[in-house]
Amino acid sequence: MADYDFDAIVIGSGVSGGWAAKELTEKGMKVLMLERGRMVEHQTDYTTEGKGPWELPFRGTMPPAEVERDYFMARWGGAANTAQTHFYSNDRLNPFDYEGSKPFRWVRPDQVGGKSLIWGRVALRWSKLDFEANARDGHGSPWPVSYDEIAPWYSYVEKYAGIAGSRENLPQLPDGEFQPPHPMNVAELWMKERLEKAMPGRKLIPTRTANMTEDKPEQGRTRCQNRNQCARGCSFGAYFSTQAVTLPAAMATNNLTLLSDQVVTNLEYDPKTKRVTGVRVVDANTKLAKVYRSRIVFLCASAMASTQILLNSRLPGSSQSFANSSGLLGRYIMDHAFRTYFWGQIPDGELDPYITYGRRPNGVYIPRFRNLNGQDADADFVRGYGMQGAAGRGPAAAIGIGAAMKEGLREYGPWTARFTTFAECLPYADNTLTLHPGKVDRFGVPLNVFNVTFRDNEMKLLRDSAIQGQKMLRAAGLVNVGSSSEEHVPGDAIHEMGGAVMGADPRRSVVNRWSQAHDALNLYVTDGAQMASTSCVNPSMTFMAFTARAADHAVKQVKAGAL
What is the pTM of this model? Predict the structure, then answer.
């Protein structure tokens, strides 16, 4: 290590960064993890965990003026709730831009652990259908890897993380290494039986989730307590987060150095050796700059932040990024299209005696059923969507005043079900992220400028989902069925992907099949930036699998003397 400060540097501490640190340290490498946000200690720093609304500032609701001033983007992720505001970036202090009338909602965390502390925990594998989609219909760059190559790595991360789910034998939603699923409630089971009988091929299953149903004593983690306060942090370690799962493992090796409040501005690069030679950081508190050196670098800052760092990593004496020989760096920015809802009511008399207890951390899922075996004859769009939802029963509506109203509130209202669509976004080369030519942030980094829109195919997917969703609920016997669509802009789903897409051809992609930058083989980009398409399912498990795979490849390359 004479020429290096560390064997490897990991930039970012979220889902991908945590896995990179764990895998590299356990394989014997001395690793530096750099995180731009503040330190959050597991258990100690979950400051609102277990508190009731009466114990929270403003009973949990942030004043609108403060939201508009400081959290005008972060509110879409949940920052308007004072139970979890501290886990989000202040948007006023961390600005970005977008082109004209094309808004982008970039929701960012601001702490060690990144979005692993606040994610929705839906834990789904991609399928063969997803990895083959670009090559099949000609959108974007073909994936250079297959599902069969990634499947063992899905199994690897699932076993360690702890994923609860049911085995369904669905080609479009492969089974994994599951703990028992969180049980469906009586209303969901009622819907499942009737829907699957009335519409063969449609499935209603428990959501596969990174909330454990069995203990992992070897990791010091306990099964889910059904508090449904996951976004506040979980001292039980019941759901996957960097703090609960990967960081303790990395720390146990004594091979990890973790530095918080370190803003990575750019990567230094030697064009002669075609290698990254250093990582430049600015201390968020002192504003002092420093460069760290390592043999390999794992860029896991989140898709948009990683792309920003790469765009700002310029060739000596040039305005061009060293990682952009393809001209595709900052292109193919994607996010899932959603905010289309459908709902219905279970008829009175069907389940009146039944109620549900606890606060389950998940619900139910309707896997993709469109365009599975070629193009559906009645579909004027390509690819598909999945649907997340739940059934529940709350108190009856308050009627009247005084004693009569109070007595009425002792009764239950009807059983209702509500679902949200998550639709695939096609990769469009002109959905871009660029750097602002004249504006910089407080650390001297040019602001991100987004030029991203959903197109006709995404809108058709959402419209079809509303039609099909209502049709399914009616077929299952629900009444008072309806649907709605709210304003939806890219970034809203917080599943941003693209910017440094993977591909076999260096002329059509930024990283190769091992997540290595074509233009610097000692640089691995293993977060959402590398994604060449979006599928219609949560991408987090795919990030984990690709990261573990890339770490294994990197260490083997180092040992072979190739890096």
Answer: 0.97
